[in-house]
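Continuing the batch. This is chain 6 of the set; chains 1 through 5 are on the previous pages. Same settings as before, nothing changed between runs. Recording input and output for traceability.
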Amino acid sequence: MNKNKIIQDIIVNLIGISNNLEALAQVLNVSIVPEVATGKTEALVKKSSKDEVTKVKQPTLEELRALMAEKSKAGYREEVKAILLKYDAKKLTSLDEKNYVEVMKEVGEIK
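Output for chain 6:
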């Protein structure tokens, strides 16, 4: 197995873990809120029942690209394109970074 395949497999596994963590957050009634005002590459996770806040790393372009490629290969190409268009982006590179968290969540929910 070559290095690129191993790295790609690791990315796919990490995305799967991320999706599972998002599902767990939904079960625990936690919502992800992007930190747009400061323009930082992090997002805030705010627990609904309390005002506790934890910082979560915002997805990178590469992570988002890997997830979108995985969903496209699985036969959800049109759904992925529709999500991009929803955020006024004809292609991934024209997507505003502040929307990465929301797009990652929506693409991850495609089934």
